[in-house]
Automatic annotation (TrEMBL):
NCBIfam families: precor6x_red, PRK08057.1-2
Source organism per UniProt: Pseudodonghicola xiamenensis
PROSITE patterns assigned to the protein according to its UniProt record, in alphabetical order: COBK_CBIJ
Record key words, sorted: Cobalamin biosynthesis, Oxidoreductase
Name of the protein described by the UniProt record: Precorrin-6A reductase
Amino acid sequence: MTRILLLGGTTEASQLARALAEAGVEAIFSYAGRTAQPVEQPLPTRVGGFGGVAGLESFLREEGITHVVDATHPFAAGMSRNAAEACDAANIPLCALERTPWQARPGDDWCHVPDIPAAVAALPEAPARVFLAIGKQTLDAFAVKPQHHYLLRLVDPPEAPLPLPDTAVEIARGPFTLDGDLALLRQHAIDRIVAKNAGGTGARAKLDAARALGLRVILIDRPEVPARQVFATVAEVMDWLSHSARLGV
Ligand SMILES: NC(=O)c1ccc[n+]([C@@H]2O[C@H](COP(=O)([O-])OP(=O)(O)OC[C@H]3O[C@@H](n4cnc5c(N)ncnc54)[C@H](OP(=O)(O)O)[C@@H]3O)[C@@H](O)[C@H]2O)c1
């Protein structure tokens, strides 16, 4: 019997959860537990880490999981590495539902950087007004450039004091719109953006708004993850699941 573990935390994972529920496929949805009120899913849901590769491998065996779909964010590389290793050890087929990275269009002013430290280094020495659109987990790295004003957009209000002295915090959950992001950038007189190359449509609005306003974007490249079967759409994942289930995999 097919029994899926769906590693979530993205809009695409929620779309796949709907498709699995509608098709009546048995599946467990998994959240890391980073947000206070995660989006409700139409599947049985668990929250929290598994306890590394060994913990995930035990979970796969105990729950009788037959397939794993990694639909985590492209920057959740730790989870993706663990999933690849645990599936390998437990001999369970794995695929990823992954958004295509964004490509620059005419008029975009993008500076590509490999990681967070390089994004920090790419900020100027002179005070600037920066939309730091990278979530909450890696803000500490920007503390070495306290001269900038930072606009943060977070899902939940910060629980601890922020490591940056001059911030404005916008509490919001995507997807975002071009009009909304244009208004936000103008309201805060932002002159540059730091973003992760997440891909997809829901977070793209800020890049389109930056182009419209002629702002520079410091775009962080995706971290490396192990090679695995990758699909860009929910339909392809559903095909893969039904195909491998028919083959008795
Ligand atoms: N990184 C981003 O920019 C970003 C943006 C939007 C959404 N998200 C979502 O936020 C979550 C955490 O991202 P992250 O970058 O912190 O991940 P990460 O650094 O790759 O993962 C760190 C640890 O968190 C646990 N974890 C991550 N995703 C999990 C999941 N779906 N279910 C159960 N445990 C999970 C695992 O703990 P154990 O080792 O204990 O199993 C993992 O080793 C992911 O679900 C991701 O899709 C991340």
